[in-house]
Design goal:
The protein is of the alpha+beta class. The protein has six domains: 77 residues, Orthogonal Bundle (Helix Hairpins), CATH 1.10.287; 227 residues, DNA ligase/mRNA capping enzyme (D-amino Acid Aminotransferase, Chain A, domain 1), CATH 3.30.470.30; 74 residues, Nucleic acid-binding proteins (OB fold (Dihydrolipoamide Acetyltransferase, E2P), Beta Barrel); 68 residues, 5' to 3' exonuclease, C-terminal subdomain (DNA polymerase, domain 1); 71 residues, Orthogonal Bundle (DNA polymerase, domain 1), CATH 1.10.150.20; 68 residues, 3-Layer(aba) Sandwich (Rossmann fold). 35% of the residues lie in helices and 19% in strands. It has 24 helices and 22 strands. The chain has a five-stranded mixed sheet. The chain has a five-stranded antiparallel sheet with strand order 14-13-12-15-16, with no helix packed on it. Helix 23 links the parallel strand 21 and strand 22. Helix 1 packs antiparallel against helix 2. It starts with 25 loop residues before the first helix and ends with a helix. The structure holds 2-(butylsulfanyl)adenosine. 2-(butylsulfanyl)adenosine binds next to strand 3 and strand 11.
């Protein structure tokens, strides 16, 4: 493979007609196009010094695309055309880092930075040392691996030891070179960032689409990299700035950090040119001060400066604490503050129904980002701040949080107090603030703001077990208006589901079957699925045992509800409030009409066909999930246990039963299948 040094690369290729390959094979032309495109991408995305116009560049890419479409056998994973964003994925694979991606200790003041320097000096026992000062870009860190000179894999930091594999998404980032000169395997580490312009543009688009804004460029960068659709990452114009070069074993390649940064630069990676080799801490502090004054003029966000001891042998001598290296520190800049006026207070309803008051502000630049909103958290916070509409306030952005209001600096001449609404601004449902809680909530389970969350809970394991009805499907069902309330799930048709993204005939049949099956689940599950506060699995069982009928629970007074075991005033009140909400009454009517279990047909009490029997369940059953089987056994008076012992009466075994089956056979415990369970229950499978 040819080793290209980018600085020496001078291929200026002009577009030619696709069919005019008289003296060149298609393979050769593709090779030349790729080299040329890489060269121009490096000039444009890494060095910021384009040499050809966008139109000329586009023509090269188009020609390459046409050739690759005509000759798919010639497509390689390092081709510049593969950046457009490949196939979506089901989820991210977890991958271990070669060496942990540690975090940094912070210095918040000059004194703290000097204290860090004193420690370094002591530990290095009088030997000279120098620092590399780099800007601390506010993004998320990512490792990228290269093999045979080709980009191979990208992994997010994750918890530092294990990250998420985001290769296809990272491939769409233009400053991640797909091909580099070094052919020996290596890894780079650096920061994925979104510049301010791209951030503002993205938020403007999201606002237009009525999607929530990203609070800061870092969240936006993380949200853009960790999406399952690489084409979304591609559209967000992320950047990747590198700062470490490691060999395959995770060891630094060079003896000096400064040298490694220059080497990365030569390999075609983006390395922030705003860096300095400092002979001592005073020079480093000067660098920090210079960029603190200039930070608003940078095209991207920084939240400080990172100082690293330059010599790698000295770094090794200094070593690590459990959390961070002793040879590096982050000097964090103070939060940026500005004064502005509160022009209104709006209430937003979150995914769980919690209401958050948000201050609308006279738009103002804080740290280079226009801020027009700040969270006020809840009613108590508004009282604490004494804030009213029309007041002038001091707001603060500290990089990693949503802007917040620090204090009122001047009361408005014509100020209006704010009151939490009694009805949800989204659906008109009742707003309730439970005693001792800070948040007020909308209690309509079908409120559009919390519908996705309600459906997710309704369908989850241990609730109504609608396997296959995951977040991606819920998202589509709600966004396309197919499901406007939880009960609409029971009207879905196979045809509607099959038309959705990522739904084939098999997954459709699976979801329909599981929705159907949820109709047969015992009443306590239905009660639990409503998402009433404080009514979990156990309380639902106890209420069902006492009332035996969901409609009776829905109409019982608070006093009557407290007749059930373990139900106190707080739970009773929450149940009453839930069923007093007219939207929830409607939901109940719809679920009854859909055929869900409202009667507790086989209450857990003496006299059920399985009373006194203990079952252990293992393997995959043909028709029931284990939770369903457990529920059926318990509803018939039986018990279930986790492990097989001499006390076990039956082992209910499905396919791929393992050690439990062996143990049962050893102990002589009878083994039954699903069909036999049904016959013991007196039911048909
Ligand atoms: S060095 C063990 N260098 O800041 C050394 N980090 O607060 C770890 N960051 O997790 C990182 N710019 O996400 C390093 N020039 C830079 C950086 C940088 C931004 C981020 C990175 C890291 C965090 C630590």
């Amino acid at each position: 493979m040819m080793a290209i040094r980018w600085s020496e690369c001078e291929i200026i290729l002009r577009p030619i007609e696709v069919n005019d390959y008289s003296d060149m094979s298609v393979r050769e032309r593709i090779g030349k196009l790729r080299e040329s495109i890489r060269h121009h991408e490096h000039l444009y995305y890494v060095l910021d010094k384009p040499e050809i116009s966008d139109a000329e560049y586009d023509a090269l890419v188009r020609e390459l695309q046409q050739l690759e479409t005509a000759h798919p056998e010639l497509i390689t994973p390092d081709s510049p055309t593969v950046r457009v964003g490949g196939k979506p994925r089901e989820g991210f694979q977890k991958l271990a880092h070669s060496t942990p991606m540690l975090s940094l200790d912070n210095a918040l003041t000059t004194d703290e930075l000097r204290a860090f320097d004193n420690r370094v000096r002591e530990l290095l026992a009088g030997v000279e040392y120098s620092y590399v000062a780099e800007l601390k870009m506010d993004g998320l860190s990512m490792a990228a691996r290269y093999r045979d000179g080709v980009f191979e894999q990208a992994i997010t930091r994750g918890d530092g030891s294990i990250g998420e594999e985001v290769t296809e998404n990272a491939r769409t980032i233009r400053s991640v070179p797909l091909r580099v000169p070094r052919e020996i395997p290596f890894e780079v580490r650096g920061e994925v960032v979104l510049n301010r312009r791209a951030f503002e543009r993205l938020n403007a688009e999201r606002e237009k689409a009525e999607l929530p804004r990203f609070a800061n460029p870092r969240n936006a960068a993380a949200g853009s990299l960790r999406v399952l659709e690489p084409s979304i990452t591609a559209s967000r114009r992320l950047d990747y700035y590198t700062y470490f070069a490691l060999d395959e074993a995770g060891k630094f390649i060079f003896e000096s950090h400064w040298e490694s940064l220059n080497w990365l630069d030569g390999q075609g990676f983006k390395v922030n040119p705003k860096r300095r080799l400092c002979a001592n801490v005073d020079e480093a502090l000067a660098f920090c001060a210079e960029w603190e004054a200039e930070r608003d003029n940078l095209p991207y966000e920084i939240d400080g400066v990172v100082l690293k001891v330059d010599s790698i042998p000295q770094q090794q001598q200094l070593g690590f604490t459990a959390r961070a290296p002793r040879w590096a520190i982050a000097f964090k800049y103070a939060a940026q503050q500005r004064e502005t006026q509160v022009v209104g207070i709006e209430v937003q309803v979150g995914r769980t129904g919690a209401l958050t008051p948000v201050a609308h502000l006279e738009p103002t630049l804080v740290g280079g980002v226009t801020v027009s909103r700040a969270t006020l958290h809840n009613e108590d916070e508004i009282t604490r701040l004494g804030i009213q509409i029309g007041d002038t306030v001091l707001i603060e952005r500290s990089g990693d949080v949503i802007p917040k209001v620090v204090r009122v600096t001047k009361e408005g001449a014509a100020r209006t107090p704010f009151h939490m609404p009694h009805h949800c601004p989204v659906c008109g449902g009742h707003i309730v603030r439970e005693e001792g809680e800070a948040a007020s909530r909308c209690i309509n389970a079908n409120c559009p703001a919390r519908l996705k969350e309600s459906i997710g809970y309704f369908a989850s394991r241990g609730v109504l077990n609608i396997d296959g009805l995951g977040d991606v499907l819920i998202e589509q069902l709600v966004d396309k208006g197919l499901v406007k309330g939880v009960a609409d799930l029971y009207d879905l048709t196979a045809e509607q589901l099959e038309n959705l993204d990522r739904m084939g005939p098999k997954s459709t049949a699976n979801v329909i079957r599981n929705i159907d099956r949820s109709r047969t689940l015992p009443m306590p599950r239905v009660l639990g699925a409503l998402g009433i506060r404080f009514v979990g699995e156990r309380t639902a069982e106890l209420l069902a045992d006492h009332f035996e009928d969901l409609d009776r629970i829905a109409t019982a007074s608070a006093d009557e509800l407290q007749q059930a075991q373990e139900v106190g005033p707080k739970v009773a009140e929450s149940i009453r409030t839930f069923f007093d909400e007219s939207h929830n009454k409607e939901l109940l009517d719809r679920l009854r009409a859909a055929g869900l279990q409202f009667k507790h047909t086989a209450p857990k009490r003496e006299g059920g066909p399985l009373t006194g029997l203990t079952f252990v369940i293992t393997g995959t059953l043909p028709g029931l999930t284990r939770e369903d089987a457990k529920a059926k056994i318990e509803a018939a008076g039986g018990k279930t246990a986790a492990a097989v012992s001499r006390k076990t009466n039956y082992l209910l075994a499905g396919e791929d039963a393992g050690s439990k089956l062996k143990k049962a056979q050893e102990l002589g415990v009878p083994v039954i299948d699903e069909e036999q369970l049904f016959s013991m229950l007196g039911e048909k499978p």
